[in-house]
Amino acid sequence: MGLVSGHQLSKRAGRTGSMLFTRSRDPTEETALSPTQSQGQFDSQSQYERVGGRAGCSFTQTLINLLKGNVGTGLLGLPLAVKYSGLVLGPLSLLAMGVVAVHCMDLLVRCSHHLSIKKGKPFLSYGEAMEYGMENCSWTCRHSVWGRRLVELFLIITQLGFCCAYFVFLGENVKQVVETANWTTVNCQSNQTTATMPTLDSRLYMLCFLPFIILLVFIRNLKHLVLWSLVANFAMCGSVVLILWHSLSNIQNPVSLPYVGKAADYPLFFGIAIFAFEGIGVVLPLENKMQRPQNFRTVVFFGMTLVTLLYIGLGTAGYLCFGDEIGASITLNLPNCWIYHIVKLLYCFGIYITYALQFYVPAEILIPLAMAHVPQRWQLPFDLAMRTTLVIITCALAILIPELDLVIALVGSVSSSFLALILPPILQVLTFHNHGLSAWVLIKDAVVSLVGIVGFVAGTYVTMNEIISRSSTRYSNSTASYSS
Fold first, then answer.
1. Residue 170 to residues 57, 173, 268: CA-CA distances in angstroms?
2. Which of these, 20, 10, 12, 28, lies nearest to 436 by C-alpha position?
3. CA torsion, points 203, 206, 208, 214, in degrees to nearest 10?
4. What's the confidence (pLDDT) of residue 346?
5. Which end of the chain has fewer CB within 10 Å, C or N?
6. Where are the domains positioned within the chain?
7. DSSP assigned state of 412
8. What is the pTM of this model?
9. What is the three-class DSSP state of 77?
10. What is the pLDDT of residues 258-295, one digit of tens each?
């Protein structure tokens, strides 16, 4: 869920790239999958020029982009995820999920290398890799196009889900800042926010943001947002540092906190956590844009280690700081002082700009398909109308489910689990099934995909039940208030 659009980069790379092949045969499964091979056995990766070439991104630039692609709103919900799973089980589960996520990213890159060489293409997107992987098997080749469509479907669901979460995040945080402004002080020592009577429903704040976001997505060329995106990145980075510092400085006695959460709440943890870890969409574009793509595995392992440590650190520290009072976003628990109000507003600004970047992915998939049947003179009005409609849909869904933790858990369970856990192991089997995959590799792939499927089913079921339960409670309370 990051600030860089993987689909955008992959499309541009696919249009402009070139690759020089120097090997006369495809890489074997051993050379493509074994991390212990010598440099000479990686000729298929090092002796051709990827799209990035000499003008591509350096190691440091790629690392920064990878970090941006994995650190977003999901990070702020991890303290609540730790509450759902427990003080000990939560961090251990985040560590395990980080290891599996890195492994699946590595699988995707290796399968893409193998298939791009086999197909003679300079670069493959995630959807193309899935399509060509299915073409590689006689029993799936007839329906290979559905592999790409499946990836694109979950990519659309994921990105629009991010946009829904952004609406909820903006509404809840701005509502809190506005309603506590008269009681805001310069004293930031207290952990408690001021309890006030609500003046407006958070859904009304979402509606207030709707026209501004529509105007934002009318900017069809993302180059015009580069400067604002850079400012947003600094704002969000500074906000995360201050939030982490406050959490670490105010850790409470953990004796009353459960080490293991309720089993019924663990699917909610899974959905929130996998939502945070879902940065697999930027992996292939970033690898393709590197000057030296043979070093990309080092970038992934080092970068995702930092991401995992940050997730564990903020998730654990946030829960230790606020305990059972932790909100859907840790920003909602920050003290009622001007410094942390500024932190919330800066993060809201970053989320507002990020909306356009995340929105670009589904827009680039859906709008061209619809515009193929529109006359030339009506294409611009139709384009703007489609963008407006998609934004209204995300706002409507956010209003229907105005609970940030449930939106994140639902998106994570439904789509992120497929993209990050279920599909990469399946792609490995499809790509290398005729290269003698060992039994333990097949078992490992089956286990990882099975975990993703169980998380998908259980997370979706529990989240939907919780959505229905909270909606009923909210309706009952509103009816009682109206009657009184």
1. 33, 5, 22
2. 28
3. -140
4. 92
5. C
6. 62-468
7. I
8. 0.80
9. coil
10. 999 999 999 999 999 999 887 777 788 788 778 787 78
Tokens of 33: 């999958």
> Which of these CATH numbers, 1.20.1740.10, 1.20.120.430, 2.170.130.30, 1.10.260.40, describes 62-468?
1.20.1740.10
Q: Report the C-alpha gap between 200 and 392 in whole angstroms.
A: 20
Per-residue pLDDT of 170-208, as tens digits, reads 999 999 888 887 776 766 765 454 445 556 788 999 999
Answer whether 178's CB lies under 8 Å from 30's CB. no
Residues in CB range of 86: below 8 A, 6 or more apart: 258, 259, 260, 261
Q: Is the pLDDT of residue 44 over 60?
A: no
Q: How far are the Cα atoms of 67, 167, 253, 343 from residue 78, in angstroms, in the given order?
A: 17, 19, 19, 18
In this predicted structure, what is the pLDDT of residue 336? Answer: 84
Angle at 445 between CA 412 and CA 133, to 5 degrees: 85
Q: How far, in Å, CA of 427 to CA of 100, rounded?
A: 15
Inter-residue contact 166 to 73 (CB < 8 Å): yes
Displacement of CA 24 from its chain's centroid (Å) = 38
Written as six digits, the tokens of 359 are: 């929105």
Write out the two tokens for 286: 């970033």
Tell me which amino acid residue 84 is.
Y
Q: What are phi and psi of 327, to 5 degrees?
A: -95, 180
Residue 414: DSSP 8-state: I
The values of phi and psi at residue 326, to 5°, are: -60, 140
